[in-house]
Amino acid sequence: xxxxxxxxxxxxxxxxxxxxxxxxxxxxxxxxxxxxxxxxxxxxxxxxxxxxxxxxxxxxxxxxxxxxxxxxxxxxxxxxxxxxxxxxxxxxxxxxxxxxxxxxxxxxxxxxxxxxxxxxxxxxxxxxxxxxxxxxxxxxxxxxxxxxxxxxxxxxxxxxxxxxxxxxxxxxxxxxxxxxxxxxxxxxxxxxxxxxxxxxxxxxxxxxxxxxxxxxxxxxxxxxxxxx
Length: 228
Known about the structure:
Layout: E1 8-12, H1 16-28, E2 32-36, H2 39-49, E3 53-57, H3 65-75, E4 80-85, H4 90-99, E5 103-106, H5 111-125, E6 132-135, E7 138-141, E8 146-149, E9 152-153, H6 158-169, H7 177-185, H8 194-206, E10 215-218, E11 222-225
């Protein structure tokens, strides 16, 4: 991901070695970093630092990550929060989405995965930082709400646009149907998971992806976009 000067990231975790590891890595990527080791410090710091991204641990002494997330979403009009969770429980994910979390990463995680998710959140929530963004043969123009493939603007419905955009900005990451439903349709969507299959099939037809080389199906896991 291209270095983005001026992008602010707040790291919140009570484990010093995690903070040190992430601060070093993200600073080297060009981000402006602030750190906090407890929830109240994070809330107070965020009000002056005004971060674009908050990487927030769930389990902390005092105010836990859920409450910090709720307070930050109330305090800041436009902030993206990535929760760090110790286990991949549906209840935790739903709770986080309900109170405003934008994404979550399960510990232990790789730095590359977190960096990819930060990039995805920035492109999704702060498109003005990027303008047109290219991914292999694709180009997303958020100002025009268009996606081009091999130089041709695709004829997409609003939902197809959001789904393809989500797949592209998370390229290389396996996305389950449940995750896609949460992020594209919303956590309160009351329909069936197979709606994802219907829209994936439609996208493949419009991309002439008959052999599923662009949008791959990983049986039992979900979908992954592989860019040439």
